[in-house]
Amino acid sequence: MLRYFFKKFFHVIPTLVGISILSFAVIRFIPGDPVLIMLGERGANPEVYAEMKSKLMLDRPMHEQYWYFLKNAVKGDFGQSIVSKRTVIEEFSDRFPATLELGIVALFFAVIIGIPMGIFAALKRNSFFDYALMTSSLIGYSMPIFWWGLVLILIFSVKLGWTPVSGRISINYDIEMWSGLMLIDTLKNEITSEYGFAPFWSAFKHLLLPSIAMGTIPLAVIARMTRSSMLEVLGEDYIRTAKAKGLPWRRIVGLHALRNAMVPIITVIGLLFGSIITGAILTETIFSWPGIGKWIVASITARDYPVIQGGILFIAGMIIFINMAVDMIYALINPRMR
Questions:
Q1: Was domain 88-337 assigned CATH 1.10.3720.10?
Q2: Domain ranges of the chain
Q3: How far is CA 308 from the centre of its chain?
Q4: Spatial CA neighbour of 275 closest among 332, 316, 224
Q5: CB–CB of 166/287 below 8 Å?
């Protein structure tokens, strides 16, 4: 098992190096000068422009700039934001809890709806309900996040007025943050706050539409995977034996079929969490959610090279390690993988 772990771990290093090279090179081909954007009108002064470009090391060859970035990144120093003057790690730490909360709620939404949908479709195979559920999941998988998010805003925020359009909580509430997860922090503050549960419901309503928009595609994937996995298991000999013994159908489905069908489903859920993190870029931009996705988009607009490089590397690292953790769990469950 240790050999399998180290083999997977050493595959991570060249992957991260390759991603760092790509992110470093691609952002420098985007039109626009970060120094001119930052200086504004002062950029017309050649001396000020040259001094700032030298300070940011943008006047050196690209290979020197990359080597300087890589050398510091290995030490845990990803540079300083050109715009805010704060370190990239500080900026990331402030925004990551918002993205994590959104991703967890979106995945929870996808799991609690997707798994029952898949089970029901498998039990009613080739029926109207099966075709309807699978068609719905296909439509959900095909919808672009930016379009689906705008539709949700137009219906539930603009037309019905049930949910807010943007942000994490109403400006009427001043909540002390200790975990960075708004739902947890509002519940903790409820004990001593004069507002009662109002901040929690405000945070929940702000979180509802973004999590639905982000969780729709994973929901469709989980539903289809659950259906196919359940159909495969329901055709096994031990299921027929359980039927022949007269066991209740609920016990056969819940105890024997679902437990064995959950192995590939758990794998897919783990891998989908990584895709949810990447989906946060579009979702957070549409709903003005103050997470790492919106942060990176704003940094691209401002040509904030250190933030873009560090942010992409952080996101890539998270996805890689999540995938590796899923592989390890699957290897523990299924020894054939080792």
A1: yes
A2: 88-337
A3: 17
A4: 316
A5: yes
